[in-house]
Amino acid sequence: MRDFKKDRSIRSGKGDRRHQYARMAGGLGVMVVLALLAFGSAHAAWDMYQKFSDASTADAAAQGELATMQAQYQSIASTTDALQTDRGLEAAIRTRYGVGRPGEGEIDIIRQATSTATQGSGSQNWFERLWQAIVPF
Q1: CB-side exposure of 11: number of CA atoms within 13 Å?
Q2: Range of the domain at 95
Q3: Of 21, 87, 94, 111, which residue is the least packed, with the fewest Cβ within 10 Å?
C-alpha cells in the first residue's frame, strides 16, 4: 500500500512553499467565487420575493376593483332594466324632477295632539319629586 502522508521533513525547499502558497491562493479564490455566487443567489432570491410580493398586492387591488366594477355594473343594469318599462320611467321622472300627473295633489298628514298630560305628579318617581322639591325652577 501507498503511504499518502506527506513527509514534510524531506521537502522543505522553496519550491514546496511556493506550491503551498499557490494552493492557499487557489483555495482563497475558490472561496471568494463561492461567496460571490452565494451573495448573487441571495440577491436574486430577494428580488424575486419582492416581485411576488408586489404582484400579490397588485392582484388584491385588482380583485377589489373588479368587485367594485361588478357592483356598479349590476346597479347600472338594474337601472336600465327599470327604465325600459313605463312604470320605471315614470318613477325616475317623478323622483328626479319632482313632477306629478295632472290632477294629482300633495297629501299632508297631520297628527292630532295627545290629550294626556305629561306633567302629572303620578307619573314622576320619588327621586324626581324630591328633586323638584329641592330645586323648584
Answers
A1: 11
A2: 14-100
A3: 111
Residue 116 in domain:
no
- The residue behind cell 298628514 is 109
Residue 8, SS3 per DSSP: coil
Residue 119 placed within a domain: no
88-101 residue pLDDT tens:
998 888 888 888 77
Domain total of the chain: 1
Rounded CA-CA distance 125/1 in Å is: 116
pTM of the model: 0.43
What is the enclosing helix (H) or strand (E) of 43? helix 14-83
Q: What is the pLDDT of residues 61-86, one digit of tens each?
A: 999 999 999 999 999 999 999 999 99
46 within domain boundaries: yes
